[in-house]
Amino acid sequence: MLTYVTAHGEVGMAETPMKPLAVDMVEVKRVSADLRIQADGGLASGLGGFAREVERGVLFGWFSPSGETQAARNALWAALHRHRDNAERQLRLGQALAVALEQVLTNYTEADDQAAAALKVLEREISASAKRAEQAALRQRQGRGADV
Question: Which domain covers residue 70, as residue numbers?
């Protein structure tokens, strides 16, 4: 029986353990780098140009006395502002996701390094214990006692 806590703090039980999760860290690094390039390079620069164009205003129907044309012009202006706001939100989310992926990579690397260091310590201890046991067995066979 496996007990776990969900992201919402709820405790759950599973009959069988969850399958191990395999993640290709090289691919995560590539995706993070691509996301950063697309967000900072593509979307940010395009958004800057678009924002300047929107701030100039909508020239469509500027001199038309028609109320329908003015209404269409206002609707277009509102749609362009909504599009700019959505693009800014998308840019912030893309940048936040890139930062989060980079932090995951950093955390994973640090945890992996710590685990590797701990394994080296364990290997040294096991090796030293095995040598001491081997020496004790040899001393015993030679009748000199098992001083370790």
Answer: 26-106
Burial pattern 36-68, b for ≥16 Cβ within 10 A else e, equals beebeeebeeebeebeeeeeeebeebeeeeeee
Residue 71 located in a structural domain = yes
112 inside domain: no
Which residues on neighbouring strands pair with residue 47, listed in sequence order?
none
| Residue 116: partners with Cβ closer than 8 Å, 6 or more residues away | none
Q: What is the pLDDT of residues 123-143, one digit of tens each?
A: 999 999 999 999 988 888 887
Q: Which two tokens stand for residue 13?
A: 């039980």
Which pTM value belongs to this model? 0.60
In-domain check, residue 63 = yes
